[in-house]
Amino acid sequence: MDPPIAPDRSHPTISPFPASGYGASELLLNVGIWGPAPTKRRDEFVRINRDLEEKLMVLGGMKALYAHTFYTESEFWKVYDREWYDALREKYGATSLPSVYDKVKGDFKAKKGSRDRVLDVRPLGGAYGVLKAVRYRYSAEYRRIRRDSPI
């Protein structure tokens, strides 16, 4: 019987975190947890995420940065290679932009407003996202960017 999770070894693994110890010869397993939170209470949601992040640190893993993180800033930079990241930001002139930590840090104290609660109802959130994309496509900013783009 095959294991429930079978790694794909046909492609080399490239890590965006070279100092983390993961390299082309290492196996990297990306596991996603999708769906609604098991609780509506904000403090419980944060606690569940903090427990997961703590377990990942113990196991030498890391959270993929498409998800919010609830690490403190010092915990975050223990997991993700700040020296490498800052050098990359410097190389590409991106130091004036928010850091990756600023982009993915979860808000421990955020309260959802009525608009957010409405957008949590399917398919309203998706429809709202499509509407925003269409509105942007026809905006003056989009036309200016397209006009000035060298591509």
Structure commentary:
The protein is mainly alpha-helical. The protein is built from seven helices and no strands. It has helices at 42-59, 73-79, 82-91, 100-104, 114-119, 124-137, 140-148. It starts with 41 loop residues before the first helix and ends with a helix. The model is unreliable at 1-7 and 11-15 (pLDDT under 50).
Summarize the structure.
The protein has 151 residues and is mainly alpha-helical. It has helices spanning 42-59, 73-79, 82-91, 100-104, 114-119, 124-137, 140-148. It is built from seven helices and no strands.
Residues in helices, as a percent range: 40-55%
Question: Could you give the distance between the termini?
Answer: 51 Å
- Low-confidence residue ranges: 1-7, 11-15
Number of helices: 7
Write the layout of secondary structure elements.
Elements: H1 42-59, H2 73-79, H3 82-91, H4 100-104, H5 114-119, H6 124-137, H7 140-148
Key features?
151 residues, globular, 0% strand
